[in-house]
Write a structure and sequence with these properties.
162 residues; mainly beta
């Protein structure tokens, strides 16, 4: 009987020192760049933005374009009409005729030279805000396809008009 009491006392003392370990690590949270974009594994920071009202486009550049072949990467957001108020816009396949609540997105890389466009298969919405007449577009993670090679990458980002 004395052995059972000693065994029980030892179990009480040892049990609290044991801890459960887990071999799984939590999945990293995806983040949206605050003023730039991420295409695949490459992140680009916005240096310059441009509003082209004639085609309802807002563009971001990771450098200042110069010359006939500028060495910059771009992110372009297309609207049916440039927004004057904020809202939620559905991301659709581009190029396409856009409804008032839809946007199309294109990204171009300088090296290697490639153009990517949204597929519209994600069912994802972007958030657009307009402050002081300046447009901000927050793009959650969406698939974009290479227009010539056929490969696809994930794109996410925030385009803030300067």
């Amino acid at each position: 009987m004395k052995q059972y009491i000693l065994l029980a006392a030892a179990a009480v003392l040892i049990a609290p020192s044991c801890k459960k370990s887990s071999s799984s690590t939590p999945a990293p949270s995806s983040s949206i760049p605050s003023n730039g974009w991420k295409l695949g594994t490459t992140t680009y920071s916005t240096v310059l933005t441009n509003r082209l009202a004639s085609i309802n486009e807002l563009s971001a550049f990771d450098g200042t374009p110069s010359g006939s072949t500028p060495a910059v990467n771009t992110l372009n957001v297309y609207f049916s009409a440039l927004p004057s108020t904020g809202g939620t816009f559905h991301i659709v396949s581009y190029p396409a005729t856009l409804a008032s609540n839809e946007i199309g997105i294109a990204a171009a890389t300088y090296s290697p030279g490639a153009d990517y466009v949204t597929t519209g298969h994600d069912g994802i919405d972007a958030t657009v805000t307009v402050t002081g007449g300046k447009i901000k577009v927050v793009i959650p993670s969406v698939w974009v396809k290479n227009t010539s090679a056929g490969d696809s990458l994930k794109l996410t980002g925030t385009l803030v008009e300067q």
